[in-house]
Amino acid sequence: MTEPTIDPLMRWSEQHALLMCLGIGGAWLEHSPLLLAAMAAASFSALLVRNRSRYTPRGAFGLANSLTLMRVILTLALLLVPTQPEWQTVAVLLLVGADGLDGWAARRFGTASNFGQLFDHESDALLLLTVCLLLLASGRVGSWILLPGALRYGFVLFSRTAQPPQRTVPGNRFTRLIGVTTPLGLAACWLPAIPPALVTTLAAGLSLALGGSFLFSTWQLYRPESIT
Q: Which domain does 167 fall in, by range?
């Protein structure tokens, strides 16, 4: 019996998720993001090299993917270059704000693709993880803050292991709203002006909301008619 063909993008996503989970564990044990950043950079480089013909319908890299790549590079720089909490929050605000530019460019110039969609989703996941790591490094919350940063990767690995009827789910307003507000809210938590007690409450609330969005997405994997 012939094994079903696995889409190269999906295969990379699963490999990337496993690699990032290992990187999160390493960052927690070593109290340093260097290994995780190196693993992320290597994994994204592999994505770009392996899928050269999949960038856009015409094959060119395109403006949208260039904007996403810039966000990945700046996110890694945010993770590795020490700076003041206020500037970190501004950087996250700009990166989240720039998230809509690549989608707009893809639609405007007709370069939307499965590659671009995956690239965008994974850049968002890397930004959220970076915010969680920086918040942990600030000492304002405990190691549990890494859990929301790992949810995307756990979801991908669950989908790979459980083999639900659907492997992906469409976006919806609820998950998109949570995806935007979570990194912004967590980034505000490392500002000195935010009282420690409020930091814990805000970070926990955002983490629970994000967890709820992933539970909703997991439910959709088993629901034939997904909600859009």
A: 8-221
Is residue 227 domain-resident?
A: no
Angstrom distance (rounded) from CA 12 to CA 45: 11
Q: Alpha-carbon distance 145 to 133, whole Å?
A: 8
Handedness of CA 125, 7, 104, 59 (dihedral sign): positive
**Matching residue, tokens 């968002």:** 124
Any idea what the Cα angle at residue 19 is, between residues 166 and 165, rounded to 5°? Answer: 10
Query: What CA–CA distance (Å, rounded) separates 117 from 64?
Result: 10
Distance CA 17, CA 49 (A): 18
What average pLDDT does range 63-75 have in this prediction? 96
How many C-beta neighbours within 10 Å does residue 111 have? 21
How many domains are contained in the chain?
Answer: 1
The CB density around residue 42, as the number of other CB atoms within 10 Å, is: 10
Q: Cα separation of 212 and 92, whole Å?
A: 23
Query: Helices 99-108 and 62-80 sit at what angle, rounded to 10 degrees?
Result: 170
Question: Domain containing 141 — which CATH number?
Answer: 1.20.120
pTM to 2 decimal places: 0.93
Provide the total of helices (H) and of strands (E) in the chain, helices listed first: 9, 0
pLDDT digits (tens, 9 = 90+) for 180-227: 999 999 999 988 889 988 999 999 999 999 999 999 989 888 876 544
77 in a domain, yes or no?
Answer: yes
In a domain? residue 2: no
3-state helix, strand and coil shares in percent for the chain, rounded to the nearest 5:
75, 0, 25
Does any domain span residue 185?
Answer: yes
